[in-house]
């Protein structure tokens, strides 16, 4: 019989307690709440499928769900692609000192509130803003960027791009550079080196970076609301709308559970994929 | 071991005692003049210094605001907080009747208020403020009108004088909604010719939905307070559905080229009132504040409120506003003889009082609103 290792438990217990208190507990409560009902603006603890039946039968819920999936997926893909050249440069072409300074600078945006950073886009993306002012010099525009899906994407990238860049840089900095050199010595083009050496070697890091970008974008309320004009709404906006109207917290909980199930599924699939060994030939 | 001895002489006793009194005097004084706290549940701005500062000073009161946006949130705050949390409740008239129906507010004595001084007869027995037995529960305090809000550099007042302007091709992608179904759908109902915009049968409700959906290609976004202000101010939105002078008035004061007009199809009136929570243990002081809000000075403050402007409801209040702030009185048309005088608009039958849906549920209207946003 295995003996309980007190030493190991001492280190594991805090994280177990933390997760139980602040993740599993609230998660169970949200799931339970989705079966409650609201009467006279007060939640009644019961077990009814009313909220589930109501929400999953509504077309607007599913269209918001599809839109949120597409937008968060796009944000993850665009952030991964945009971040890659910069991360590659920092990992392989910079001195260690320069890389440290660059990583510090990538952390700096997080010192400012995300809401403030989002609002600052107003002056840049507005029709009378900085970008359209630049386009006007070439006789172009004005282009409508605020209150569009493009505006939402800009907001998502504001949130996730620095993080993806940091994760990709750290990932590539840990790849054995001898592998890259060997590929080049054996005649690989730069593109082939990236495709056949760097991407497989850093697969886990790249997938985790994209996964973080997806998770943060999928649950973000600020960008689609303030830069996308809620037009159309995303799932987090649907949660706000649902609670505003009639204090329907159980229905909001249904939306929240739908979101969590989606994130669990995607995170699980991404982790399995990223750690899967390549099939031997 | 210390050799120090503790001896209390008459001289040291007196010195210590006097010093103690001197040091504690400020705290004693503060305790004697203990400030009373009044908690107000209200729309943003109603418990800010520009509104309550003079009353606080005169009565040694400190207002503790709890702000909400939308009547549903107000009812939820009342349901979810322990009894006695709130003293004064500031609410829209259509939700005041729910406060009465749920037995949440104190009965008021009509004899305490000068109803003869109210600017319009409708205000004297305002729906929802009185119960079926003729008992008063809520006191009307200010009102405003919702119509077409527009950018003056794009549209003239004449062009904006119909809800049809929202479908104008110059406004494609530039029409914004205040993100609340009641005012926007109420305006669509007026456009469809419904005399009672919130009391419509199934066929009329379907027609309102169809008409609203046809506006979707024009819509640039759905906004909260902040988004509405910035959208109009930076020109991203050239017209807004569901708002009125309570938004454009603030921007106009800052020089933005925006304005609001009550169109030919009519406008919707928002009406705000004060009630006293039944569980308040400071009802006397709360009643005193209600008296203050109905005084000419209180009415001027309510018309000038920095949070968002409104119209005075008493003749004495309007007269004092014209005397002390003629510019604001003129800007908001609270001047006798002005064709957009809000009282004249009511007398001409162009104003309908905002209400909750009568033949449908709030949930029906809200469901459609979500569908519309996702269309």
TrEMBL record, chain A:
Task: Tell me the keywords, alphabetical order.
Answer: Cell membrane, Membrane, Transmembrane, Transmembrane helix, Transport
Q: Name one GO biological process term.
A: transmembrane transport
Give the source species: Pseudaestuariivita atlantica
Q: What is the membrane topology listed in the Swiss-Prot or TrEMBL record?
A: Multi-pass membrane protein
Q: Does the keyword Nucleotide-binding apply?
A: no
In which compartments does the protein localize? Cell membrane
Stretches assigned to the ABC transmembrane type-1 domain:
65-270
PANTHER family, alphabetically? INNER MEMBRANE ABC TRANSPORTER PERMEASE PROTEIN YDCU-RELATED, INNER MEMBRANE ABC TRANSPORTER PERMEASE PROTEIN YDCU-RELATED-RELATED
Provide the protein name: Spermidine/putrescine ABC transporter permease
Answer whether the UniProt record assigns the keyword Phosphoprotein to this protein.
no
| One cellular component term from this protein's GO annotations in UniProt | plasma membrane
Mind telling me which Pfam families this protein's record contains?
Answer: BPD_transp_1
Hey, which family's this protein in? Belongs to the binding-protein-dependent transport system permease family. CysTW subfamily.
């Amino acid at each position: 019989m295995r003996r309980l290792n007190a030493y190991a438990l001492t280190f594991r217990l805090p994280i177990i307690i933390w997760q139980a208190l602040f993740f599993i507990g609230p998660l169970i409560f949200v799931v339970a709440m989705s079966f409650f009902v609201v009467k006279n603006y007060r939640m009644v603890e019961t077990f009814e499928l009313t909220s589930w039946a109501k929400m999953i039968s509504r077309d607007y819920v599913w269209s918001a769900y599809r839109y949120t999936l597409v937008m968060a997926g796009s944000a993850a893909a665009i952030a991964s692609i945009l971040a890659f050249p910069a991360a590659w440069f920092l990992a392989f072409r910079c001195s260690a000192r320069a890389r440290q300074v660059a990583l510090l600078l990538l952390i700096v945006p997080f010192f400012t509130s995300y809401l403030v950073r989002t609002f600052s886009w107003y002056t840049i993306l507005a029709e009378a803003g900085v970008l359209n002012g630049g386009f006007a010099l070439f006789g172009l525009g004005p282009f409508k960027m605020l209150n569009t899906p493009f505006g939402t994407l800009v907001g998502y990238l504001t949130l996730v791009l620095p993080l993806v860049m940091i994760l990709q840089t750290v990932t590539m900095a840990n790849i054995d550079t001898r592998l890259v050199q060997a590929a080049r010595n054996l005649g690989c083009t730069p593109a082939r080196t990236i495709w056949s050496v760097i991407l497989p070697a850093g697969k886990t890091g790249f997938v985790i970076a994209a996964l973080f970008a997806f998770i943060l974008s999928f649950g973000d309320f600020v960008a689609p609301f303030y830069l996308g004009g809620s037009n159309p709404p995303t799932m987090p906006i649907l949660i706000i709308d649902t609670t505003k109207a009639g204090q329907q917290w159980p229905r909001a909980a249904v939306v929240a559970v739908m979101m969590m199930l989606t994130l669990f599924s995607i995170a699980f699939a991404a982790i399995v994929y990223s750690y899967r060994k390549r099939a031997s030939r | 071991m210390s050799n120090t001895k503790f001896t209390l002489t008459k001289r040291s006793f007196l010195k210590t005692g006097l010093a103690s009194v001197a040091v504690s005097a400020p705290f004693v004084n503060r305790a004697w003049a203990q400030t009373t706290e009044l908690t107000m549940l209200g729309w943003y701005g109603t418990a800010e210094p520009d509104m309550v500062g003079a009353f606080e000073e005169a009565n040694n009161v400190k207002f503790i605001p709890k702000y909400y946006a939308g009547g549903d949130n107000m009812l939820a705050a009342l349901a979810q907080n322990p009894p006695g949390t709130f003293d004064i409740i500031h609410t829209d008239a259509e939700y005041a009747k729910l406060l009465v129906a749920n037995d949440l507010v104190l009965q008021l004595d009509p004899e305490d208020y000068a109803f003869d001084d109210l600017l319009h007869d409708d205000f004297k027995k305002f729906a929802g403020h009185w119960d079926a037995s003729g008992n008063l529960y809520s006191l009307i305090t200010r009102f405003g009108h919702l119509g077409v809000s527009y950018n003056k550099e794009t549209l003239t007042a004449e062009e904006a004088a119909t809800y049809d302007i929202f479908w104008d091709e110059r406004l494609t992608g530039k029409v914004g909604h205040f993100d609340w179904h009641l005012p926007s759908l109420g305006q669509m109902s007026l456009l469809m010719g419904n005399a009672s915009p919130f009391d419509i049968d199934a066929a009329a409700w379907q027609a309102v939905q169809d008409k609203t959906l046809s506006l979707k290609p024009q819509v640039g976004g759905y906004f909260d307070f902040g988004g509405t202000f910035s959208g109009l101010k930076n020109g991203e939105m050239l017209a807004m559905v569901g708002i009125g002078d309570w938004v454009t008035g603030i921007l106009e004061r800052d020089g933005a080229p925006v304005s609001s007009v009550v169109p030919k199809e009519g406008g919707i009136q928002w009406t705000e009132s004060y009630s006293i929570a039944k569980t308040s243990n400071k009802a006397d002081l709360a009643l005193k504040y209600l008296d203050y809000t109905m005084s000419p000075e209180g009415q001027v403050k309510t018309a000038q409120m920095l949070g968002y402007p409104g119209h005075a409801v008493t003749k004495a209040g309007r007269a004092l506003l014209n005397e002390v702030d003629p510019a604001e009185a003129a800007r908001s048309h609270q001047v006798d003889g002005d064709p957009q005088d809000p009282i004249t608009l009511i007398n001409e039958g162009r104003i309908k009082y905002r209400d909750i849906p009568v033949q449908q549920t709030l949930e029906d209207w809200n469901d459609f609103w979500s569908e519309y946003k996702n269309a």
